[in-house]
Amino acid sequence: MTRHTLAVFVAAAFTSATCFAQGSQTVLEDFKPSTLNQPGQEYPQVNSQGYARFRIKAPKADSVKVSLGLGGRGGTRLTKGEDGFWTGTTEGPMDEGFHYYHLTVDGGTFNDPGALNYYGSVRWESGIEIPAHDQDFYALKNVPHGHVQQILFPSPSTQTSRRAYVYTPPGYEKEKSKKYPVLYLQHGWGEDETAWSNQGHANLIMDNLIAEGKIKPFIIVMTYGMTNEVKWGRMKEFRIEPFQTVLVDELIPYVDANFRTLADRNNRAMAGLSMGGMETHTITLNKPDVFGAYALLSGGIYNSEELKDKSKAKLIFLSCGSKENPDRVNKAAAELKAAGYNAVSFVSEKTAHEFLTWRRSLHELAPLLFK
After folding, report:
1. What pLDDT, on the 0 to 100 scale, is given for residue 49?
2. Which of 89, 200, 264, 297 is the most buried (most CB within 10 A)?
3. Rounded CA gap, 358 and 310, in Å?
4. Which residues, if any, are the signal sequence (predicted)?
């Protein structure tokens, strides 16, 4: 799910000069291919200011638009050249980090053949990365790396085998007797169990923190949250019980039986972004003896009243982007602290409901878990 909506329309003009004016800002002509492009593809491109430029070959089309953001609202209209290529640049700079997008060509929805695809908004969408000033914490570095493996676990409640991805930290395969805590980490609406590894770089964030000696190594389990059966705008119809059964009664026992886990409440945490945060909130309240730490990433808040008379969490982590509702998150954490809970709030600067918010949130959360 992306989480920046660029609600603009623009017809871009190009010159051979080193820069050109667009709106009130001079746009620098230092565009480079996005790091998420297909091999050998020059477009889409991003410049040092965060503008994105698109170029699509559609010689017989009458209209081409690039739609960015949740549900594809808003977009950048492209201009057709004599060579049959449609080109355009976003009206303003985009937030740093990852964004989904797709093309609308004569009313039809298509992916950009120049970009890699990521599952979000209930479909495989094109992806573009705006380099972040703090991207080093999720960069691929020459450090020991853990493994992300697919597992298929039996699910009697859904009468099928279900898929999850499991991150095991560096050294897991060699240290045959060592056991690890586990974080169950959920994606958002319209995404699936691939999101945290592909869009979120959760494994790289963990590898780098472990290499820096900043965290106690732990396992991460990511599974499908049964969210896509509920359409956008009808979230009140979502029922937590089916997923709660899959997670608590089927997946957790399977993980504990097949991985070297510390299989107790104090060494088990749950976190989720957006709708995954809603799932986390509900399940941890329903099953307070299963998880010892909770984290909601742009996924709501807890209050002391709903936590009363339940097993006390070792950590409650609340986060969001500064363009979301930071006052609500900070206020909730302060209220929980006053009530005696170990509550921490984090606000990602200059981001909204998007993956850089959640990458940063995981980076802040991980060192606090399993102390």
Report:
1. 96
2. 297
3. 28
4. 1-21
Nearest to 277 by CA among 87, 73, 3: 3
CB contact at 8 A, 79 and 68: no
Is residue 202 within 8 Å of 287, Cβ to Cβ? no
The average pLDDT across 193-200 equals 98
Distance from C-alpha of 28 to C-alpha of 164, rounded to nearest angstrom: 43
For residue 184, the SS3 value is: strand
Q: What tokens were used for 210?
A: 């472990």
What b/e readout covers 51-79, taking b as 16+ CB neighbours within 10 angstroms? Answer: bbbbbbebeebeebbbbbbbebebbbbbe
Report in angstroms the alpha-carbon separations of 313 from 53, 72, 207, 256, 341: 47, 38, 26, 21, 8
Rounded CA separation 117/125 (Å): 5
CB count in 10 Å sphere of residue 213: 7
Q: How far is CA 223 from the centre of its chain?
A: 14
Residue 370 gets the label, from left (phi > 0), alpha (psi -120 to 50) or beta, of: left
Reply yes or no: is the peptide bond before residue 156 cis, omega within 30 of 0.
no
> What span, in angstroms and rounded, lies between the C-alpha atoms of 72 and 7?
9
Distance between CA atoms of 190 and 273, rounded to whole angstroms?
A: 12
- The span from the CA of 105 to the CA of 356, in Å, is 29
- HSE of 26 in the Cβ direction (CA atoms, 13 Å)? 5
pLDDT at 360 over 90: yes
Strand order in the sheet with 52-57: 32-33, 45-46, 52-57, 85-89, 79-80
At 256-277, the pLDDT tens digits run 999 999 999 999 999 999 999 9
How far, in Å, CA of 31 to CA of 49, rounded?
A: 9
Identify the three-state secondary structure at position 186. Answer: strand
Q: Tell which phi-psi region holds residue 25, choosing left (phi > 0), alpha (psi between -120 and 50) or beta.
A: beta
Residue 236: exposure state from Cβ atoms within 10 A (0-12, 13-18, ≥19):
exposed
Q: How many residues are present in the chain?
A: 371
CB 225 within 8 A of CB 279: yes
Structural domains in the chain, sorted by start: 19-131 (2.60.40.10), 137-368 (3.40.50.1820)
Q: How far is CA 68 from CA 4, 99, 104, 316, 336, in A?
A: 8, 7, 11, 33, 37
